[in-house]
Each structure stands twice: as C-alpha cells, then as structure tokens.
Amino acid sequence: MIRKLRMKLIIASMVSLLAVLLVIMSAVNLVYYRQVIQDADSTLALLAENNGFFPKNNHEPPPDEPFPKKEPHLSPELPYETRYFFVTLSQDGSVQSVNTGKIAAVDTSDAIDYAQSVWKQGKTQGFADQYRFLVDTSSSETLILFLDCSRGLDNFKTLLFACVSVSFVGSLLVFLLLIFLSGRIVRPFLENYEKQKQFITDAGHELKTPLTILNADAEILAMDYGENEWICDIQAQTKRLADLTNDLILLSRMEEEQTQLQMLELPLSDIAEETIAPFQAVARTQDKTLELHIQPMLSIRGDEKSLRKLFSILLDNAVKYSSPQSTISCTLEQQKNLIHLSVWNEVDHITKAQTEHLFDRFYRTDQSRNSQTGGYGLGLSIALAIVTAHKGKITASTADEASLRITATFPV
Description:
There is one protein chain. By secondary structure, the protein is α+β, with helices and mostly antiparallel strands. It contains 9 helices and 12 strands. The protein has helices at about 1-50, 80, 110-120, 150-225, 230-255, 270-285, 305-320, 350-355, 380-390; strands at about 85-90, 95-100, 125-130, 130-135, 140-150, 265, 290-295, 300, 325-335, 340-345, 395, 405-410. The protein is elongated and about 125 Å long. The two termini are about 25 Å apart.
C-alpha cells in the first residue's frame, strides 16, 4: 500500500510538472513562431506596396521638418539584411520578370520554379520551403514575393530544441529527487499506518480473552438458570464482537503478511463449488434463487484458505443485501489470460458514487448503521485484501442503480 502511495505521488507530481512544462514550452515557441511570421508578413506587405523594393528613406529632413519621417517599424538596416526575390506573372501565368538581386541562394530558374508552384497552388500567402511568400494581385500583373526566413526558422528550431532539452533534464532531476524525497514525504503516514495496524492486531488479541470469558460465563448462566432473553442477548453480542475482532485481525494480517500466504496450484472450480454450495440452502430459505455458472477444470496459484474466504464473503454479501425474492448470479470463467469471478444481485437502490466506497473499511450503504443484516462493513475490505494478495483486481459497479456486480479478476 505504501509503495502504491509513493508511486501515485511520483506519477501525480511528474504528470503535473510535465503538463506545466508543456504549456510553457508551447506558449513560448508559439509566440516566437508567430512573431517570425508576423515580421515576415510585415516586410512582404511593405515590399508589395513598393512593387518589390524597399522605400527610400530621405535622411535629410525638409526645411520645414526638423526630423525625417520614417516608415513605422522599419529599421534603417532592414533593406540591407533582408534576403528576398520576386517574380512578376501575367494574367495567364507566364513569367514577365524575375528579380534575384537581393539573394544569392536562388537563381532565376529556381525563382521561376517557386513562382509557378505557388501559382498552381492558388494560395496568396504561406511557405515554400524556408521562403515566406505573398501574392499581390492589386495591379494588372501578379507580383509574387519570396522572403528568406531561414534565420528566423533556425532560431525557432534552436529555441524548441533548447526548451525540450532543458525540460527533459529538469524533469529527470525532479524525478530522481521525488524518488529520494517521496520516502520522507510518506514516512509520517507510514508510521501512523503501521501503528494503526499494530494497534488493531494487539487490541484484537487482547479482546479475545475477555470475549471468551464472557461467552463461557453466559453459557454457565444458561445452564444454571436456563436460557432467557438477557443471556441470549449477551451471547449474540459477544459472538458479534468476536466476529468483528477476528475480521479486523484477519484484515490486518492480510495487509501485513501477504508474503506468508501459502501459494499452491489449486483447483479453483472445485473450491468454488464446495464453498458456494451451502449458500444455495441459505438463499432458498429467504425465497431467493442462486444461479451458478462455474467453468470446470479452472486452476490458480493461490492460498486455499483465503480464496474460500473470498467466495464466502462475496456470496454472503449478495445473499444478505439482495432484494427479497430476487435472483443471485455467480459466474466463474476464464477469458484469455484472466480468471473472472463475478457475483451479481439485485438491490433496492445503490448509486455509482456508493460503489466507489464499497471496499472502504466500515463503509455501508445504510448510513444510519441500523441495518438488520448485522454487517459492519469489513467483508469487502477483506475481499479487496485477498484479491490484491493474489495480484488481482476487484471492482464494484451498477448498471441501473437497482443491481450490484462485484467482479474479481486473477492472472492465470
């Protein structure tokens, strides 16, 4: 249980960390990429307005203007550091002119190929390899401008790689720290849990002696004075308390000493039939029908005493809490590499929220705790411990809130 708690703590922390890092990385890289596209589109729009050339800045202000007017967001160095080319096409798509004077990586034939490719696509804006293009049809001729964005895209890839690398290394360091620190984090819970289990075990053993004496005294009183209402009540409540104590000790031992179970190859089908058979008569006395569907010749490696206890708990629970004059179904079968044990019964009412707590200690759907069945909410907790000890899983579900299905699966 403590190991599972540590695993859940580590997994929850790592998932949270990775989610936060993913959001941060996505936001940073998306903002940078959008900025690269925005800068490229602004430059292309400026070139389109001036027929493929940058506007000339007059560095000498007119006599009536103390300062020169500059294009907004236009750096004086932009015309010298920008690499671009453009192609002019006629209305039928034939090439009218090509200008590659501002780029060395593209010759005239390459520029024509890029322009014809964009013309066939019919797009007005986008990427052709590392070149951002813009199609301007404001005049009688079509002007296709290509801007080299390789530097910005390379910087984007570098930033993305850096973010991924730093996040990976940081996540690995956090994972190692969590492995080291999670033990200290859960240590107080572990100590309290161990003390609780030890208290239950010690208290159970201490209660056995006075309960045995009380039961013996009640039997002596019954022999001396004859059975009466008070003596019967003492015996009934003493037995009830003794059963509760035994179940608490059993549950504590199942959680503490799972490795001490005697795991042997067992005929599971035979054990199920032998254990469930007595419940046929119990169900019949309550006008209920118990249907058995047990696949023969099933075997499992497990502890016989614990498995018999599991069958008894599930069938006793189904008979006790099923609706009057209803049907109870018990199925044991193998599906692929798993053995499925399913117990289904009708109930007066149960919600899906309640099924999530059925395996909690002392939990009962009857919140008033005045159930006439005499249960005290430990049976399914013991069933969970038994199934877990056999490396299986057990679940509770309801399809219509008028029936309950307990399903246990075991690996073959």
